[in-house]
Protein: Ig-like domain-containing protein
Amino acid sequence: MMCLPASPPALRMCLGLGLLVLLCLGIGQALEKKVVRSKAGEKASLPCCHEIPSSESLHKYRVYWQKNVTDVVLAYSEGKVISQHERYQNRTEMDPWNLTLWISPVEILDNGSYQCVVQRNSVLVCSESVILSVTADFSKPNITAEVTADSCESTEMVITCSSHGGFPKATLSGALNNMSMEWNASWVSESSFSPYNVTGKRVLNVTKDVTITCSVEYSGFATSTSLLLKKTNNCVVPPAPLPYNVITASIIIVITFILAITLAARYLPRHVCSRCCNHQDSVEEGVKEHTKAPMSYKVTAETSSV
Ligand SMILES: *[C@@H]1O[C@H](CO)[C@@H](O)[C@H](O)[C@H]1NC(C)=O
Ligand SMILES: *[C@@H]1O[C@H](CO)[C@@H](O)[C@H](O)[C@H]1NC(C)=O
Ligand SMILES: *[C@@H]1O[C@H](CO)[C@@H](O)[C@H](O)[C@H]1NC(C)=O
Ligand SMILES: *[C@@H]1O[C@H](CO)[C@@H](O)[C@H](O)[C@H]1NC(C)=O
Ligand SMILES: *[C@@H]1O[C@H](CO)[C@@H](O)[C@H](O)[C@H]1NC(C)=O
Ligand SMILES: *[C@@H]1O[C@H](CO)[C@@H](O)[C@H](O)[C@H]1NC(C)=O
Ligand SMILES: *[C@@H]1O[C@H](CO)[C@@H](O)[C@H](O)[C@H]1NC(C)=O
Ligand SMILES: *[C@@H]1O[C@H](CO)[C@@H](O)[C@H](O)[C@H]1NC(C)=O
Ligand SMILES: *[C@@H]1O[C@H](CO)[C@@H](O)[C@H](O)[C@H]1NC(C)=O
Structure:
C-alpha cells in the first residue's frame, strides 16, 4: 500500500520484498509446529487446518485424525465415523465445522504428534501436524528430617524430599539458606509413560538454624516446599532463661538500693538536724546552702526546723 505511489523499480523491489516475507512466513509455519499443552485428566482441543463453509457440510469430506502417522485416532467419511482407535474410544469428539479434535480425559499415553488430514471429493484440502504435550502435576514436595547424630557443635540429619504422581520426569533443585544445593535424586515409574515419583536425599551437618528448600520442576512447571531445620542440642544448661534471671535480679537490686537511699534520705537528715538544732544560725545557713537541692530535701529540712 505504501508502495503504490512509488516509481516502477521501487514497486518491483517492494513486491520482491513482500514475496520474500511471505516465503519466510511459510517456512516459519512449516518449521514451527503447533503445540497444545494439556494436563492429564483434562480436556485437550487439537485444531485442524480447515473450516467447512456453512454452505457445505461434513458429508462431502473425509477427515483423518492420526497419531504419529500410523495410528488412526478418529476418521470421518460422508459425515460418519469410519474408524476409531480402541484406546481413544469414548474419549474423542470432533467438531463438525472446524474439525477440532477434542480428547477428554487426556492420558499421559496421548502425548505425541497428531496429524489432521482433510480431503474433499478425494482431493487433499490440507494436512497439518499438532503436538500434544501432556503433563501431570507433581504433588507439593514433602520434606522430612531424621537426626542421625547430635553433638554440641552440630546435628547430623538425613533430609528427604519426595513428590509423586507427576509427568514428565522432573528435575529436583534445592537451596540451603537461599544458597543453591544439590539433591541426590532418584525416580520411580511403572513405565516411561506412567507418572513418576521422585525422591531426593541429602546428609547435612547443621551447626545453626537453616532453611532448606526443595523444588520439583517439570516441563515448565514448578512446585516447592521449604522447611526450617533447628539446631536441637545447644549444650548450654538453661539457654534462654539465664539473661532473663540476670535482668530480674538486677532490677530487684536496683529497687532495693533506691528504697535504701529514700529511707536514708528521709531519716538521716532528722538525726543530723536533731544534733545541730541547738544553733538556729547554722540551720539557716544550711537551708540557704541547700536551696539548689531537690524539693524533697528542702521540705524535710524545713519541717525538721519547725
Ligand atoms: C471450533 O469450534 C468450537 C465450537 O464449535 C470452538 O469452541 C473452537 O474454539 C473452534 N476451534 C477453532 C480452532 O476454531
Ligand atoms: C512413532 O511411534 C514409534 C513407536 O510407537 C516411535 O518409535 C516413533 O519415534 C514415533 N514417531 C514419531 C514421529 O513420534
Ligand atoms: C464406550 O462406551 C460404550 C457405551 O457407553 C461402552 O459400551 C464401551 O465399553 C466403552 N468403551 C470403552 C473403551 O470404554
Ligand atoms: C511427547 O511428545 C513429543 C512429540 O512427539 C515428544 O517430543 C516428547 O518427547 C514426548 N514426551 C515424552 C515425555 O515422551
Ligand atoms: C510426609 O512424609 C511423612 C513420612 O513419610 C508422612 O508421615 C507425612 O504424612 C507426609 N506429609 C505429607 C503432607 O504428605
Ligand atoms: C537470597 O535472599 C535475598 C533476600 O532474602 C534475596 O534478595 C536473594 O535474591 C536471594 N538469593 C537467592 C540466590 O535466592
Ligand atoms: C546418591 O545416592 C546413591 C544411591 O543411594 C549413592 O550411591 C551415592 O553415593 C549418593 N551420592 C551422594 C553424592 O550422596
Ligand atoms: C508413587 O507414590 C504414590 C504415593 O506415595 C504411590 O501410591 C505409588 O505406588 C508410587 N509409585 C511408584 C511407581 O512407586
Ligand atoms: C558431621 O559432623 C560429624 C562430627 O560433628 C562428623 O563425624 C560427620 O562426618 C559430619 N558429616 C558430614 C556429612 O559432614
Q: What stands out?
A: The longest strand covers residues 123-135. The chain is about 25% helix and 40% strand. The pocket of 2-acetamido-2-deoxy-beta-D-glucopyranose (ligand 9) is lined by residues 151, 153-154, 156, 203, 205 (CB under 6 Å).
